[in-house]
Design the sequence.
């Protein structure tokens, strides 16, 4: 009894103590302690993430302005583990007043509230990079921005106040920048530069493949200048912004929308704030929910809102428009692959948009087979979401699962069941959507939704079928070539045997047979479709004939030796 | 030796035909009767399997034919130069090693395994209409003979009644044996060497004035030729003794009508008058061999179906009855099961009774 009283007393004290300690945590502070959530969990990944966020922003900005992107990415090594990253674009620039917030306030962005397929979505990316840079080097981010040829450029040195999640301007100035418009970001951060599958080099190469309209110049810490040229002057089809579709929202969002709506009735709210709702449909929804169409949206209570939500989900509404997503397209995907990957065969499939829970998405697959790719190893899988390469967590991604779930053997590749196939193949899988369901905030892997996996598989299988046809033809042609080579080798054998059988002269027979071979070559090659191979075969044959002539003398010697040997054997 | 000269001549003719085509600038071709199931016909008049009229042609400059073309010519050349010219004989295996080598500048062997050189030899038989034996290539020898017969083989005189318990081992080529004295009323051919040993120990051939011959499993060409010669030259009836199973029946069928693989040689090998002595389904019942039944498996059933539908069995009531008896019993019986009635039951009771009563199937 006594003891329990004691503990009660203690608890009271504790709660009061706690109350003193409890206060608001800013987003910035939260991410300071949980930087892995944003993908900055290792020094090598940190450099990649910083480049990735800046490049995403630059490409989105140039596309919004409808200019062909010209990007310069430079990484300089300052000390063993300190690097400076400079990314410059020719985008619209950023209005002076907004620069501090865009770069030095988390969750501030133009893309979070809109429904349109774009690279960045949450407005965390670049400010997270700035935060990480500040945490590891203490150096401010340096921003240069110019919005029009008439304006001067603005130059800002910014810090993030991690407690308040507010930008702090360290220094600012305006100056003449020899450029019409654009943005330049300079960050100093701790990191590690590496090459390989998860490097900046690989990231930019993949960016170049799915953005054939972009020109990127990259200078890496080894001072190597790599240029990814532009393959088309055609900008991607601009994605249209759409209003949310009733099937794609949750109750909480509906309540928030009801409260902030400017519409005066529920009916007009439904028609104005959602896509694909007509007045008839609005009435149907309200009737089902037992609501008067003339109610004011902000006056709906929780039960009414819930009824409205349920009714919206149960009413037949046509699928949302799909022009809110921007596919790369089969032709451009092939162009992108061709300029970055040396291969023998390219093809791409761009599926029609599909709607999942009111959110449109579409899948594209491109492949490059043969050429420089490793013939023995597993295929090189490149995953993309809204044209952004996904370099980490391949094993956790729905795209990987889809590739592994297909039987590639009928398409001419080797595969042990349930794993990635083997062969000289680069496989590009792109998911475009207004809302890509990532498994985590670091945006490395796409979540396993059946509808997505199904679409990926259909696109992969179509590419697979085309690949299979190519491989079969090619293998057949190669086998044909090898067999024709054999004729050349068989001729002297046949002459020898016939000469021994009939007493005819061997040389005469070889010459005659060679003549017949040349005469018949056209027919023999007719089954070989590949033009290059045909040429190769002809060349080979000429070379072999010459070789044979040179060997005639040495062959005679051999023959003599052989007959001597058989004679000896017979004596024994 | 005269026949060797002829053999040499046919091979040279074969070579010269090819040379002529080459000189004319033509893609050289070899034409021959097609040797596959589609071109095998059962000649109801002669009652043997024969090759039909379909021809196949093999071109040198054809990726699918080239190697076989070369193999055929090479084997012809080797046979002419290494065997016929020196009067020597060799086995199929020897021919394989005489031909086998890697073609210079490639990793291709002229022949990869013996079936290829065997095929080339069969081709030459079809092309030249000369038997393999005439071309001095022998099959494996596998079989024994005993009886009151004296023969001459390459100058040696051999008495088949004085060859001990194993009998005389039949050579692979029996065309050139010379019969000096044949004292027999019939020939008993059996599938099993063990049964041969039993009958030989019991001196069955002496007591019954006959010749006993065995091989192991399928009958070799040497034995088939020997049986045919005894049948044709001495008019001896030939009786076949096998297990009561479909494979035993097929052994009889091959001796009588020929086989698919050697349809081109049917005329030299088949014996239309041969009779099947046992073991029949009726014997099984009569001699109470049911207790030695061996259950049929799926393979047996499908083989029964196949064999019973052969043209020469299809309309033969007696044989159809045998197939039915076997299917109904769902079992087969070995010859040796007769031993359960006494070790010499087969030689003292079973065979003499059957021959006396002329209980044969045809």
Sequence:
């Amino acid at each position: 009894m006594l003891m329990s009283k004691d503990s009660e007393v203690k608890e009271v004290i504790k709660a009061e103590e706690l109350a003193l300690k409890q206060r608001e945590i800013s987003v910035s502070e939260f991410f300071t302690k949980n930087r892995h959530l944003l993908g900055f969990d290792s020094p090598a990944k940190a450099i990649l993430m910083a480049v990735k966020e800046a490049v995403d922003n630059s490409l989105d900005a140039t596309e919004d302005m409808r200019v062909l992107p010209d990007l310069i990415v430079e990484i300089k090594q300052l000390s063993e583990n300190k690097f400076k990253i400079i990314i410059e674009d020719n985008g619209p620039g950023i209005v002076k007043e907004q620069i501090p917030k865009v770069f030095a306030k988390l969750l501030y962005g133009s893309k979070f509230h809109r429904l349109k397929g774009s690279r960045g979505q949450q407005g965390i990316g670049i400010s997270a990079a700035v935060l990480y840079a500040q945490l590891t080097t203490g150096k401010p981010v340096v921003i240069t921005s110019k919005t029009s040829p008439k304006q001067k450029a603005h130059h800002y040195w910014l810090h993030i106040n991690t407690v308040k999640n507010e930008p702090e301007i360290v220094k600012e100035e305006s100056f003449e920048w020899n450029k019409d418009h654009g943005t330049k970001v300079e960050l100093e951060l701790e990191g590690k530069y590496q090459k390989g599958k998860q490097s900046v080099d690989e990231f930019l190469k993949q960016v170049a493949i799915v953005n054939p309209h972009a020109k990127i110049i990259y200078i890496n810490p080894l001072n190597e200048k790599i240029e990814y040229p532009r393959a088309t002057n055609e900008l991607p089809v601009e994605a249209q912004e759409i209003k949310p579709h009733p099937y794609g929202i949750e109750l909480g969002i509906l309540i928030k929308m009801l409260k902030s709506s400017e519409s005066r009735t529920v009916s007009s709210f439904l028609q104005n704030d959602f896509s694909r709702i007509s007045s008839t449909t609005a009435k149907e929804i309200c009737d089902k929910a037992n609501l008067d169409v003339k109610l004011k949206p902000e006056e709906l209570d929780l039960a009414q809102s819930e009824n409205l939500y349920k009714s919206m989900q149960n009413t037949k509404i046509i699928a949302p428009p799909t022009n809110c997503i921007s596919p790369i397209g089969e032709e451009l995907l092939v162009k992108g692959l061709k300029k970055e990957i040396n291969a023998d065969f390219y093809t791409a499939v761009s599926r029609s948009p599909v709607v999942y829970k009111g959110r449109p998405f579409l899948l594209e697959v491109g492949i490059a087979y043969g050429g420089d790719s490793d013939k023995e190893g597993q295929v090189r899988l490149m995953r993309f979401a809204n044209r952004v390469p996904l370099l980490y967590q391949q094993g956790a991604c729905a795209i990987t699962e889809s590739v592994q779930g297909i039987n590639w053997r009928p398409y001419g590749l080797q595969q042990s069941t349930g794993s990635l196939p083997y062969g000289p193949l680069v496989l590009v899988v792109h998911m475009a959507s207004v809302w890509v369901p990532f498994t985590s905030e670091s945006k490395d892997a796409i979540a396993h939704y059946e509808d997505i996996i199904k679409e990926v598989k259909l696109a992969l299988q179509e590419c697979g079928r085309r690949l299979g046809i190519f491989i079969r033809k090619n293998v057949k042609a190669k086998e044909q070539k090898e067999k024709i080579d054999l004729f050349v080798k068989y001729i002297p054998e046949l002459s020898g045997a016939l000469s021994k059988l009939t007493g005819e002269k061997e040389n005469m027979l070889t010459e005659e047979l060679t003549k017949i071979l040349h005469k018949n070559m056209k027919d023999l090659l007719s089954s070989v479709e590949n033009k290059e191979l045909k040429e190769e075969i002809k060349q080979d044959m000429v070379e072999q004939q010459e070789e044979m002539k040179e060997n005639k003398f040495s062959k005679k010697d051999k023959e003599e030796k052989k007959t001597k040997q058989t004679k000896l054997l017979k004596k024994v | 030796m005269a026949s060797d000269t002829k053999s040499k001549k046919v091979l040279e003719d074969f070579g010269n035909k090819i040379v002529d085509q080459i000189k004319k600038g033509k893609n050289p071709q070899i034409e021959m009767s097609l040797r596959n199931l589609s071109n095998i016909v059962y000649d109801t008049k002669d009652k043997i399997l024969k090759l039909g009229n379909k021809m196949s042609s093999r071109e040198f400059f054809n990726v699918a034919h080239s190697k076989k073309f070369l193999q055929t010519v090479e084997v012809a050349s080797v046979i002419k130069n290494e065997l016929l010219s020196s009067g020597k004989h060799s086995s199929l295996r020897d021919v394989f090693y005489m031909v086998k080598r890697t073609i210079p500048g490639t990793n291709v062997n002229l022949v990869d395994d013996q079936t290829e050189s065997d095929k080339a030899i069969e081709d030459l038989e079809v092309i030249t209409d000369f038997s393999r034996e005439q071309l001095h290539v022998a099959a494996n020898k596998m079989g024994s003979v005993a009886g009151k017969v004296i023969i001459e083989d390459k100058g040696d005189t051999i008495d088949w009644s004085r060859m001990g318990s194993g009998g005389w081992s039949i050579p692979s080529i029996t065309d050139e044996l010379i019969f000096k004295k044949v004292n027999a009323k019939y020939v008993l051919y059996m599938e099993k060497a063990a049964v041969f040993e039993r009958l030989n120990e019991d001196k069955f051939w002496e007591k019954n004035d006959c010749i006993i011959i065995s091989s192991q499993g399928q009958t070799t060409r040497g034995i088939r030729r020997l049986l045919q010669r005894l049948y044709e030259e001495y008019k001896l009836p030939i009786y076949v003794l096998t297990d009561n199973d479909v494979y035993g029946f097929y052994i009889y069928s091959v001796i009588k009508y020929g086989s698919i693989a050697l349809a081109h040689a049917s005329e030299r090998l088949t014996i239309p008058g041969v009779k099947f002595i046992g073991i029949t389904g009726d014997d099984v019942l009569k001699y109470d061999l049911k207790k030695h039944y061996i259950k049929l498996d799926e393979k047996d059933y499908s083989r029964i179906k196949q064999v019973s539908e052969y043209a020469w069995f299809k309309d033969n009531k007696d044989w159809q009855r045998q197939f039915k008896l076997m299917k109904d019993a769902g079992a087969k019986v070995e010859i040796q099961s007769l031993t359960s009635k006494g070790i010499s039951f087969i030689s003292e009771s079973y065979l003499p009774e059957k021959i006396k009563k002329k209980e044969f199937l045809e």
In short: Residues 143-357 of chain B form a domain with the Dna Topoisomerase Vi A Subunit; Chain: A, domain 2 fold (CATH 3.40.1360.10). The longest strand of chain B covers residues 210-215.
